[in-house]
Amino acid sequence: MVNKANSKPRRSSGRTYSRPTQKRQVKKAISPEQRKVVLFNKPFDVLCQFTDDQNRKTLADFITIKDVYAAGRLDRDSEGLLLLTNCGKLQHTLTEPNKKTAKTYWVQVEGDVTDEAIFALNKGVELKDGMTKPAKVRRIDEPSIWPRTPPVRERKNIPTSWLEISITEGRNRQVRRMTAHVGFPTLRLIRYSIGNYTLDGLDNGKFKVVNNPDA
CA-CA distance, 175 to 184, in Å (whole number)? Predict the structure, then answer.
C-alpha cells in the first residue's frame, strides 16, 4: 500500500510528446473525360488478372486497353461479364457490399430443380459463413449462348436445369455453394449483368469500351 503522506509529486520535464503523423496520399480524382469502363465477356479457364507465373490464360491475352483493373472478380471456372475500369470510385461502388449492386447469373444445375429449392434460394440459405441475403431466382429456358470449351460434363439420364439468380452479395463462390446447398450442383455459371451493364451484344472472349459510363 502506498503511503500518500510520504509520496512526492512527480516533476514535469516540460516536454510534450506526440505520435508522428503521416500524410495520407489522396489519389487524384478521375475526370469524366478520363474515366474508362471496359466490359469483357470472360471465357472459361481465364484468370481475372493480367499476370500469372504458371502461364495460364489471363486478361492480358484479351484486353488491350491500358491502366484498367477488374472491379470485382469472376472465378476461373466461371464465364461472362467482367467490368474493368481506371476509376476507383466506380470500383468501390460495384464491389462494396453496402452498395448492394445487383449481379445476375445464368446457372446450369444438375437435376430437375424443384419449386422448394427455388423458394429456399429466394428466401436465403445457411452456408458455412452465414445466411445469404434473399435472392431473386427463377427458372429460365436454356439461353442462346456460346459453346463452352471444354464442354460441360453432363451425366447420362440426369436432366439439367437453367436458373437466373440475382444477388447483391459477393462471397467466395457464393452461387455455386447456394445451389449445392439445396441439392442441385452448378455445372456452368455465366454472369449476365452487373448493375446496369450486361453481356448483350458482346461475344465470348471480346471486350468493348463503354462511352459516357456511369459515375
Answer: 11
**What nine digits make up the cell of 171?**
462471397
Looking at this protein, which amino acid is placed at residue 107? Answer: V
Active site (annotated) includes residue 52:
no
From 45, 67, 75, 214, active-site residue: 75
SS3 208: strand
Q: Is the peptide bond before 147 cis (omega within 30 degrees of 0)?
A: no
Q: Which residue, among 118, 127, 215, has the nearest Cα to 166 in the 3D structure?
A: 118
pLDDT in tens, 19-71: 545 444 444 567 777 888 999 999 999 999 999 999 999 999 999 999 999 98
Q: How far apart are CA 86 and CA 203, in angstroms?
A: 23
173's grid cell: 463462390
